[in-house]
Amino acid sequence: MPWGANGSPERYGPWKTCYERFRAWTADGMWVSIKQTLMAEADRRGELDWNSQIDSTIVRAHQHAAGARKGGSPPSSPKPRRGWADPAAG
Predict the structure, then answer these.
(1) What are the residues whose beta carbons fall under 8 Å from the beta carbon of 6, sequence distance 6 or more?
(2) Cα 80 versus chain centre, distance
(3) Which InterPro entries does the record associate with it (predicted)?
(4) Residue 4 burial by CB count (10 A; 0-12/13-18/19+): exposed, middle or buried?
(5) I need a surface site. Which of 37, 41, 43, 81 has the fewest CB within 10 A?
């Protein structure tokens, strides 16, 4: 069978090696560079339609992207601090 137990081809080696390479390439911007190069080539050949538009009627933002709280109850007023009073403040 050409596929290893982890679901990747055996010729790629251990899954952790693949993962670490992917992380390194992501961190150094390789995927962004590849995308930009491919888009520039497609644009040069006239294969890109720069008139396409995406707006909120087509793609909805996640509620958290709009500033909604990410869970829990609404914030309450700050609780008074307990402990020794600061002698320098009085």
Answers:
(1) 14, 15
(2) 38
(3) Transposase_6_like
(4) middle
(5) 81
Cα dist from 83 to 8, 79, 80, whole Å: 59, 13, 10
Burial status of residue 8 (CB atoms within 10 A of its CB: 0-12, 13-18, 19 or more): middle
Q: Is 14 helix (H, G, I), strand (E, B) or coil?
A: coil
Count of other CB atoms within 10 angstroms of residue 35: 10
Q: What is the pTM of this model?
A: 0.48
Q: Is 65 helix (H, G, I), strand (E, B) or coil?
A: helix
Task: For 18-47, write each residue's pLDDT tens digit.
Answer: 899 999 999 999 999 999 999 999 999 999
